[in-house]
Amino acid sequence: MSLPALSTDVMLPALPAIGDDLGAARRNDVQFVVTALFLGLGLGQMAFGPLSDRFGRRTAIHTGVVLFMTGCLMSVFAPTFEVMIASRVLQGIGVAGPRIVIIALVRDQYEGRQMARLMSFAMAVFILVPAVAPALGQGILWLGGWRAIFAMLFAVAAIAFAWFALRQPETLPVARRRPFSPRTIGGAVLEILRIRTALGYTLATGCVLASFVAYLSSAQQIFQEAYRTGALFPAYFGTLALAIGCASLMNGRVVLKHGMRRVAMTATVSITLASVVSWPLAWAFDGLPPLWLFMAYMLVVFSSVGFLFGNLNALAMEPLGHIAGVGASVVASLPTFIALPLGALVGLNFDGTMYAHIAAYAVFGAGAFAAMKWAEGEGGAPRSRDPVRGEAADEKA
Q1: pLDDT class of 186 with cuts at 50, 70, 90
Q2: Looking at domain 1-175, does it have CATH number 1.20.1250.20?
Q3: Considering the entire predicted model, what is its pTM?
Q4: Contacts of 147 (CB under 8 A, 6+ apart)
């Protein structure tokens, strides 16, 4: 489960070196090394859920990891920037396998508190990876150059593949497998588009993810070029990653008291208001507020994001229980396709100031709030269907 985060964050310190060595036309073009992975991830997520329902969990995960390893080898030997981008798309397609199927594999074996315990353990590892990945990438860059980073990713994937192959039995019996066809995926997409609640929360997830893509694609330039943090970039990046992780863990308790909808609404309002307040402050400092002020603002934004992802995904999936496998793939993929062009547009317009980013976070936060309000309007899910709170709690609210 940590492979997507590791493959995204570990090469952030190496982006300038990759662009210089492979001849990126413009400085901001190195951001495609990040966004190409998200493109592949969106494409792969559409397919791996239904594939795992047809051919089994082990086969789907093995296939994904092999594709990811192939993409890593392409990156190690990439002669041009175009080959590098193609290899990153392939890595994204491959890593979508474990990203999607592991959750189904756990659900095949466990439910209730036992499933929550295992997923909490996995989440703890997942939170740790973004916090340490840039520092790991920085160390490898110093010791062996940027190509060694992709060699490390290949080695990690190979170890995961071998351990998984030896230790993990198949969890989906042949009798429970379902046929795979593009028509199945297309039908699920059309059904989600017809269900207002599912579509609304999927659109909201896309808006939140867009702000995340915008940040990830330009984080190295923000910290190392605009704020000149140098070798301390991994420390600042890790601090914000931990903010998301801590908020995600806190959400497990907060949501039981206040419900998914209320928590999600509050978080989007926090992002929007913090951005609206921070934008004139950016003007006061010619587009680049002091680092401490920028970090304070981003801690508010990223803590709010930590409260959003899990809740929005659960709310989007709530009316899709009858197509859970395919529905999970679609609900994971559509936000990526929404977020990718929006986030990339913001990142590519980075000019050494924070005007574009802060304004975009305000717009994306407001868009997520509007999508959620629309989802809860006429035709949305009834209040009593919030699985965390239950009917009585909603009536009380």
Answers
A1: confident
A2: yes
A3: 0.82
A4: 75, 76, 77
